[in-house]
UniProtKB/TrEMBL annotation:
This is Nucleotidyltransferase domain-containing protein. PANTHER family: NUCLEOTIDYLTRANSFERASE, PROTEIN ADENYLYLTRANSFERASE MNTA-RELATED. Residues 11-69 form the Polymerase nucleotidyl transferase domain. The keyword 4Fe-4S does not apply. SUPFAM superfamilies: Nucleotidyltransferase (SSF81301). The lineage of its organism: Bacteria, Pseudomonadati, Bacteroidota, Bacteroidia, Bacteroidales. One of its GO terms (molecular function) is nucleotidyltransferase activity. The keyword Transferase applies. InterPro entries: NT_sf, Polymerase_NTP_transf_dom, Type_VII_TA_antitoxin. It comes from the Bacteria. Keywords: Transferase.
Length: 104
């Protein structure tokens, strides 16, 4: 399976589990310089007022199944949208995602 197909599978999988989530591809895959052994970095922003580990585990588990079937490492960062949007300061990670991230 090509990496673009894996990214599409990630998008569809997250949409099925969390239809209101926003998924952003970042890192080497978003920049277009990923190698065959590069991981696929995704930021998943969930709606809600507090973290829900069951929701996060459902996403992580489904992405792990994609890893097992494709052999490509997926590195999800899952957080609440309000925490992402209302940060008191902008970390290097935040700046990186905002500059090079691609909304799926």
């Amino acid at each position: 399976m090509r990496r673009t197909e894996i990214v599409e599978q990630i998008k569809i999988t997250i949409e099925k589990i969390e239809p209101t989530a926003t998924t952003i591809l970042y890192g080497s895959e978003a920049r277009g310089d990923a190698r065959a052994d590069s991981d696929i970095d995704v930021l998943v922003l969930l709606e809600g007022e507090s973290r829900d580990l069951k929701r996060e585990d459902a996403i992580s588990g489904a992405l792990y199944d994609i890893e097992l079937s494709t052999g490509v490492l997926i590195s999800p960062m899952i957080m609440l949208r309000r925490q992402w949007e209302n940060r008191p300061f902008k970390t290097p990670f935040y700046v990186n995602v905002m500059n090079e991230g691609i909304k799926l």
